[in-house]
Amino acid sequence: MRNKGFVVVLTIIITALCLYYLSFTFISTKIQQDAIDQATDKSGSINLVKKQNYLDSLWNKPVYNLFGAEYTYKEVKESELSRGLDLQGGMHVVLEISPIDIIRGLSGNNQDPAFVAALQKARELQKTSSENFSALFFKAFKDANPDKTMASLFTSAANKDRVKLSDDDATVMKFLNDEIESAIDRSFTILKTRIDQFGTSQPNIQRLQGTGRIQIEIPGADNPQRVRKLLQGVARLEFWEIVEPFDPQLSQSLGAINQLLLKEQNEKKSEAIAATTSDAPAKTQDAKSDTVKSALEEALSTASKDSTSTNALDSLRAATSSPLFALSSQSLPFYYQVKDTAVINAIFRRADVRALLPRTVGLFWDVKSTPEVTPGVDDIQLNFVNVGRSGKPLLTGEVINDARLDFDQFARPAVSMTMNAAGSKTWAKVTAAAAAKQPQGRIAIVLDNYVYTAPSVNGEIPNGNSQITGSFTNEEAKDLANVLKAGSLPAPTRIVEEAIVGPSLGKVAQNQGLISMACGLGIVVLFMIAYYSKGGWVANIALLFNIFFILGILAQFNAALTLPGMAGIVLTMGMAVDANVLIYERIKEELAQGRKLVDAIRKGYERAFSSIFDSNITTFLTAMFLFVLGQGPLKGFAIVLMIGIATSFFSSVYISRVIIEWMTRKGDDSKITFATSLGSAVKERKDFNFIGNRKIAYIFSSTVIIIGLALIAVRGLNMGVDFKGGRSYIVSFSKPVVATDVKVALASGFENAGTEVKNFGNDKVMKVTTSYLIGDESDKADDKVKAALIDGVSKFSGLQYSENDAQIDDTHFTISSSSKVGATIADDIKGSALEAGLFSIIAIFLYILVRFRKWQYSAGAIIALIHDTLFVFSSFAILGLLGINFEVDQVFVAAILTVIGYSINDTVIIFDRIREFIAFGSSHDRNRIFNDAINSTLSRTLITSGTTLIVVVVLLIFGGEVLRGFSFALLVGIGIGTYSSIFIAAPIVVDFDKSKDHQAKPEVKTVKA
User: Fold this and answer.
1) Where are the beta strands (DSSP E) in 339-411?
2) In 3-state terms, what secondary structure has residue 452?
């Protein structure tokens, strides 16, 4: 083997990197367990507040030292292999920015009937179109008003210098699209800030490009109503006058607060000392004064010994200052570490402290920390503002006409801001007053009670045109410009998709995934040893490397491991050994032809390479399209599948070869064997005339597919919420309930809307799916549907509803999980699923055409893939007739695309052997050549499919209800995919290929695998 040293070095590097990135997960898990131990009382119950407090106390403290590099708990959490919401519980939300309100705002709330009618028509067109809203609006307006220009709708004082009456429609449309895109960016910035302040670990927010939607995932969110309010609240942009800490009145108040807190602090110390002395009642007052005195004397004594000592100064400061000053940065006052903000907030919430603070002074934190204040520490500033007697800001965001990224006279990023007439007048007074102060006054720009910037005012600004300068980056200046436009051009959001997973359900899913992985791994390991002896041990070592690499790379990419992702790992286990099966069967063929072991190993790897490469590429293509076009759980599955394909190729083809060649380096054939009694028994079989019996297969497949399609046309499929829209709930009980009884009980509350109730794993858990109020995506509708569900279940069962999913007993039930998908996003999910399947098929067709140089091979492969897909759909329809209803949802789409990728593997292996037989020459006719090729690869085809089917059966049994439909689709698809590779794909090539290139040639000996 060439480049063996390179493979060894690369393996060591990848292993080291995986160990490095996974080490953060090990440390994080240990700290989490320590927190649980700290919060668990003698009865075994966990105090969640105590647990969180323990974790918060470590947030910015070093907890991991690796080769001298220290990492805080925050950095460890950011680098660990995170779990998806389905494995730990939390809330998933997709928000859609309303372009209607943005366009209406840009028009100055134009009441022109033509404008209003165009908006309404565009809203209706959007329900059935994939075009963006602005294009639909333009089309609707021009169809009804061909003689009017778009500029006539948007020319106003607010849009001065941006839209002119003479502008053509293309210019105005660019303006609209830019403003809508800016509004989405603005919403993203605001939402990101809100989520970061929410107080959960590792929240995730991302834009769904090209959709005008924002996806948010909040692990551990236990108050959905609070999250909805947080995400959908209107942004409040305000301007406030900064009050500097050295202001005489404020400074005096802060000193009084410090004395109050210090006195209280010293009294507590005195009481603690007094409690330890026998004559505490008599000496309490003396102890108080003595404690303060001794503390000061000790601090001064320490300071006098080393006046430059930081520790000494810290001691003095701690003794003479309350937390208000002791926790503050030494270089800049009122800058605190992020972890200390809770302490400061608690101080200023106290009534006695508020009484000492001037009534006209309010408090706002900066929106983000400033690490450069104290190197290595996240410091955040507390700002004091003048709220006046009325409590109203100087100005609000409604007065801003425009704000945009600009550059100052030194070509540094800045923000230019313009105001309307009323705002300009007030702004002139405000800036004149601020500029007259000594030193110059500052104006805070506050959004949602957080200060984004507080620039100094250099002089009066009479015309409302301002430029804000500072040490901004381009991105920071752009974000600030977006924030400034939040008041004048709001971008309302609505929740179009929502999923809530309770922690208990997440824990169950996590356990099911782990059990599936363990069982799948165990079965594959045992099978490979039983079938390939010592060669099986090598394949298993390569398999362990593969799983380790997958987890390490996921951690390196900071990707979340989801339940479908765990299913992808289990599936990869079966697929990973496929390459070793192909190699070992090739080696056995070479040995049967009389080659020496070392030579047979070399030839086996060389001749199996093209089949392994082709099959991996085709599967990777489907995974790639699944990732690019899929949404939600599909992406997690696709990422694992793509990584698994790459790592399994490397481990099976290269790592296993290095190990085998090392074992046989001295020419000792006893070191490695590939034959067992089980393998010999499978090999003993007769050839079968597959091509001659192809018409029987055609008839069988056609019959099943026709019956299935007929049932789909008459009864339809059990479409999940992903594809039809609606709301779904997982309801958990402590005792068994009957699904049909629950459905009857809910009928009146849901006003006889389409409702489905079925067991979810067992008869104590029900999945309720309803189309009640499907057209209303508001929070009120969500609450109404949930209330109807709770009321119906309560009346039916006599149980009370509990928000806590851990409190399920004889008197309570709970909703463990819920999801909502709006009709619009359901259509988008269906469209993206269809596109992923279509592009996968086209890509595979082109790849097969390039590799095999004949369209007949591509046609055979594609017809087989379409056959497999239709067969899976038909099987779901036939099972539905028998009362077994699996849902067709996004995870089902992942199964179909996996089937497409996997089915092509077997087809490519057979096509590759056909090409090989034709290249070597054969005296047989076309049918015989194809039969020989299929028979010679039959055992490896059955073994590779068999190992994968084994782990799929494990998933079906242990994967839980969420993966039940996915597993069944894979079970049918992989089994039928193997069948179609033999009975459909190759025979189709025979029927389509009428060329005369299979002439009699010298016969070549073939060996059955």
Assistant:
1) 361-366, 379-386, 395-396, 400-407
2) strand
Residue with tokens 């829209």: 725
In this structure, what token pair is assigned to residue 406?
Answer: 């600009």
| Residue 502: how many other CB atoms lie within 10 Å | 22
Look-up of token digits 């099972």: 879
Output the CA torsion 642→647→650→656 (10° steps): -140
pTM: 0.70
Rg (CA), the chain: 35
Residue 346 to residue 360: CA distance in whole angstroms: 20
Q: Is the pLDDT of residue 442 over 90?
A: yes
* CA 252, chain centre distance (Å): 50
Q: Quick one: which of 831, 908, 895 has its CA closest to 638?
A: 895
Closest CA to 90 of 252, 183, 218: 218
> Pairing state of beta strands 800-801 and 812-821?
parallel
According to DSSP, residue 411 is labeled S
The dihedral built from the CA positions of residue 777, 781, 787 and 792, taken in this order, carries a sign that is negative
Q: Find the DSSP H helices in 306-409.
A: 310-320, 323-326, 341-349, 351-356
Q: Which residues pair with 208 in a beta bridge?
A: 213
b or e along 797-817 (b: 16 or more beta carbons within 10 Å of the residue's beta carbon)?
Answer: bebebbeebeebeeebbbbbb
Query: How far is 442 from 650, CA to CA, in rounded Å?
Result: 61
Query: Rounded to whole angstroms, what are the CA distances from 331 to 245, 259, 373, 690, 814?
Result: 14, 22, 7, 84, 52
Secondary element (H or E) of residue 707: helix 694-715
CB-side neighbour CA atoms (13 Å) of 480: 28
Q: Which tens digit of pLDDT belongs to each residue from 373-389? A: 566 567 889 999 999 88
Return the C-alpha torsion angle 351, 357, 362, 365, nearest 10. Answer: -80
Q: How far apart are CA 205 and CA 197, in angstroms?
A: 13
Residue type, 867: H
Say which residue, 921 or 342, is predicted with more confidence. 342
Give the largest Cα separation in the chain, rounded: 118
For the segment 168-197, what is each residue's pLDDT rounded down to a tens digit? 999 999 998 888 888 888 888 778 777 766
